[in-house]
Write a structure and sequence with these properties.
The protein is 45% helix and 28% strand. By secondary structure, it is of the alpha+beta class. The protein has a two-stranded antiparallel sheet with strand order 1-2. The longest helix is centred in the first third of the chain and has 24 residues.
């Protein structure tokens, strides 16, 4: 069962990912997830940019 909070969290996460992918396509960003080595859980995200693109 979906709650309003879960729906909002899903929508915010989806928008964040779509923005990261758009920045990859338009600006050469390289987004990636940060994963806890022990648990395999996603604990964050970041991106890097190539210089001179």
């Amino acid at each position: 069962m979906n709650s309003p909070d879960k729906t909002r969290a899903y929508n915010k996460t989806r928008a964040y990912i779509e923005t990261a992918l758009d920045m990859r396509d338009r600006h050469g960003a390289h987004p990636f997830a940060v994963i806890d080595a022990k648990t395999g859980d996603i604990v964050g995200s970041t991106r890097s940019f190539l210089q001179g693109r």
